Amino acid sequence: MKLKDILSVSGKPGLHKFISQGRNGIIVEGVSDSKRMLVHSSNKVSALADIAIYTENEEVPLKEIFKKIFEKEVGKQAISHKSTDEQLKEYFEGILPDYDKNRVYGSDIKKVISWYNMLIEHNLLDPNEKDEEEETPESKEAKSEKDDKPAKTKSAAKPKTGTKTDKKPTPKASTQTKTAGAKSKSAGIGKKTSPQ
To answer: Phi/psi of residue 113, each to 5°?
Structure first.
């Protein structure tokens, strides 16, 4: 499962998987308990793929942080998120030495570590996951060759559900998050959204 489909929902503990678009919001499933629920469009929802961590010079996507932890721990769980603030900060500094200590709080670090451990526990983290934009030159070439070939039948010309041409609807609440959570002074987790 891709990080864009794993969500943090304001006021709800843990992480949730995006299931489908509902009439008044989105349907999600708890990563830990597998319970489904409707999240109303008024709730603040953040996809993990949209979260970044402030550093002194830039913002590092959460995906990159997870990859660094994965490599450090050789695919195992990290330090417990229940460790002391000093232990968590020391651990995080080993992962991202130049993180912005003025904007990234202990609670932010605790969430990142907690999320990482939860994804590892449920086998949902692929450290080599590529975004759709990160296609290799070979895959782009193969795709353009495929696009150049005429469709053999009428049914082949229609996009099928679930293909790249038929994009999954984006959760309505996440668009609200991008403006509401943008560069919050109280959040060390970046530009795109703040974790809840």
So the answer is: -65, -45
Residues in the chain: 196
Number of domains in the chain: 1
Read off the CATH number of the domain in which 75 is found.
1.10.10.1650
- Whether 101 is covered by a domain: the verdict is yes
Q: What is the pTM of this model?
A: 0.67
Nearest to 51 by CA among 107, 99, 4: 4
CB 178 within 8 A of CB 44: no
Taking a C-beta distance cutoff of 8 angstroms, is the pair 46, 18 a contact? no
C-alpha 190/C-alpha 143 separation (Å) is: 34
Whether pLDDT at 108 is above 80? yes
- Residue 91 · residue 99 · CB < 8 Å: no
Residues 4 and 189 sit within 8 Å (Cβ to Cβ): no
One-letter identity of residue 162: G
**What is the residue range of 77's domain?**
50-128
Q: What angle do CA 138, 141, 147 make, to 5 degrees?
A: 140
